[in-house]
Amino acid sequence: MSTTLSSTYTKPALSIPDQIRMLKGRGLLITDDAWAEKLLEDISYFRIVAYLRPMELDHSTHQFKPGATLEKAYQLYDFDKKLRLLVFTAIQTIEISLRSRIIHHFSIGTTPFWFFDESLCTDKHNFLDNMMVLEREQNRSKEDFIKEHKVKYGADSFPPAWKILELASFGCLTKLFFNFSSTRIKKRIARSYGVPQHEILESWMKNLCAIRNICAHHGRLWNRVIPVKPLIPSRVRNTWISNTSVSQTRLYAGLCCMLYWLNAIDSNNTFVQDLKDLLNTHPDVDTTAMGFHANWETEPLWQ
């Protein structure tokens, strides 16, 4: 892919003091220039500006509403950073559990090399893509169990699922699950989490992959539109939400799926209390921007 420099973009780079003067000129209250300089030195302008946008009066001129401060933007940034850490940790638990169950159920139900068998897949193109990803991960892996496998069985020998899939990303794992043709085995895994259909679990997997990628790249999570929608069933086997008329593109929907999934793995998890504690320490955060409704805390899932 070839790229060229833009011939129409002529704005020069601004020094940090100039950035501060510009923000002040737009009506943003900054009472401590030294603190503001340190902030913009460690958190770039276009990262912090995402948390300033809700305080803009006019999005075209970027003029700020009365009472808008850089401190409020930083508090929102700090909340979002802690939210990402909380969510990423929860997804880690889910990912490890899902990986284990996929490896076990698919391997016991078929062969140790089911991922290598095109006849067990629904889409040849996706099969080839997944194999390329797994081969790349194997070639660059420094894990002891991969080194030992190559020594014992030869450098060209592909490891079985219980070895190679420990290298797969959550995204690759999701694609392997989605492309696997046996709905019987996929339903077994879904129902082991109290999810009635594998299609629902697949949508949750894709949604969590999108959220995980945002977290992994330190992206804004708080008021983000999540591009992949999770299916929100009206009822499931275990404790769930009573109000299922939620925005599927906002974080709250994903958090509900995440919490339900976590509860199936570890009923003693602290996710609910951790999230409520975080929100209590940041009372000014607009939870509706994440898709939370007014009475979300009274939902059976969130009590």
Structural features, described:
The chain has helices at residues 16-25, 33-42, 45-52, 70-109, 124-140, 144-153, 161-164, 170-179, 183-192, 198-216, 251-265, 271-281, and strands at 56-58, 63-64. With 303 residues, it is mostly helical. The protein is globular, with a radius of gyration of 23 Å. Strands 1-2 form a two-stranded antiparallel sheet. 54% of the residues lie in helices and 2% in strands. A hairpin with a 4-residue loop joins β1 and β2. InterPro entries: Abi_system_AbiD/AbiF, Abi_system_AbiD/AbiF-like. This is Abi family protein. Pfam families: Abi_2.
Note the main attributes of this structure.
single chain, 303 residues, mainly alpha, 12 helices, 2 strands, globular
N-to-C order of helices and strands: HHHEEHHHHHHHHH
Kindly, what is the distance between the CA atoms of the first and last residues, rounded to a whole number of angstroms? 51 Å
> Uncertain runs with pLDDT below 50, 5 residues or more?
none
How many domain modules? 3
Gyration radius, in Å:
23 Å
- The helix content is 40-55%
Structural class based on helices, strands and sheet pairing: mainly alpha
Largest sheet: 2 strands, antiparallel
Strand order, largest beta sheet: 1-2
User: Mean of the pLDDT scores?
Assistant: 95
User: What is the number of helical segments per DSSP (H or I, 4+ residues)?
Assistant: 12
| β-strand amount | under 5%
How would the global form be characterised?
Answer: globular
How many strand segments?
Answer: 2
SSE layout and pairing:
Elements: H1 16-25, H2 33-42, H3 45-52, E1 56-58, E2 63-64, H4 70-109, H5 124-140, H6 144-153, H7 161-164, H8 170-179, H9 183-192, H10 198-216, H11 251-265, H12 271-281
Antiparallel strand pairs: 1-2
InterPro entries: Abi_system_AbiD/AbiF, Abi_system_AbiD/AbiF-like
Protein name: Abi family protein
